[in-house]
Design a protein that fits this description.
This protein has 214 residues and is of the alpha+beta class. It has a 4-stranded mixed beta sheet with strand order 2-1-3-4, covered by helices on one side. The longest helix is centred in the middle third of the chain and has 23 residues. A hairpin with a 2-residue loop joins strand 3 and strand 4. Bound molecules: glutathione.
Length: 214
């Protein structure tokens, strides 16, 4: 499989798939969308459950390879287009920290944010995958304070993941609008790729809402 083979992104606007589309644009990757109207429940239909049994987006297909889970998708795509410069090479000293912060998103940040948003009692610290919400967020804040990016001077795919994620989690009030997060999000969302996809998402989301209501 090569980077010239087109990628299919299973997509729904204003969802966790948005960041993957932004990444594809940043990478200059050739891709097509397979759009699901989640407002109409298409993600729970058998056709899509055959792609991702969880009924969640994003998912990508690249030739025979089907990849679900944002963490895997970001690593896969950024490695596929090394010329875009968004991934440290395997022998780069920054590779470890890069993988660390991408994995941190899925393993620690997401479960913590959902518990926080749902006002759920977290598991005791020794059993929780993320210690506790404040510690989890504090470690991220300390890293971002070194700025301007997660790996300090160099933007990577990890920043697209985190910039987009902090954008929506702050919007929903699941993450506090601390200066360091606000400035970081602004750095990512002001980029042309995010601006383009955000505008396209607004339009697509309005069409989906109208179609679901009809
Ligand atoms: N663990 C998955 C979670 C993806 C996820 O939660 N996607 C949401 C979109 S924001 C979804 O597809 N929700 C549709 C549903 O469950 O009905 C990942 O990181 O890719």
């Amino acid at each position: 499989m090569t980077s010239t083979d087109r990628i299919t992104l299973y997509y729904s606007p204003q969802s966790r798939a948005t960041g993957t589309r932004v990444l594809l644009e940043e990478l200059g990757a050739p891709y097509d969308l397979c759009v699901l109207n989640m407002k109409a429940g298409e993600q729970r239909q058998p056709a899509y459950l055959a792609v991702n049994p969880l009924g969640k987006v994003p998912a990508i297909r690249h030739g025979e390879a089907l990849v679900t889970e944002q963490v895997a998708i970001y690593i896969y795509l950024a490695d596929l287009f090394p010329q875009a410069g968004l991934t440290p090479a395997v022998d780069d000293i920054r590779r470890g920290p890069y993988l660390r912060w991408i994995a941190y998103y899925g393993s620690s940040f997401e479960p913590a944010v959902i518990d926080q948003f749902m006002k759920r009692e977290p598991a005791p610290i020794s059993q929780s995958p993320y210690a506790d919400y404040e510690t989890m967020l504090g470690a991220l804040e300390a890293q971002l304070a070194k700025g301007p990016y997660l790996l300090e001077d160099r933007i990577t795919a990890a920043d697209i993941l985190w910039g987009v994620a902090l954008h929506w989690t702050m919007m929903f009030g699941a993450v506090p609008q601390k200066d360091v997060f606000v400035r970081y999000v602004e750095r990512i969302t002001s980029r042309p790729a995010f601006q383009r996809i955000s505008a396209a998402d607004d339009e697509m989301a309005a069409q989906h809402a109208a179609a679901a209501a009809a």
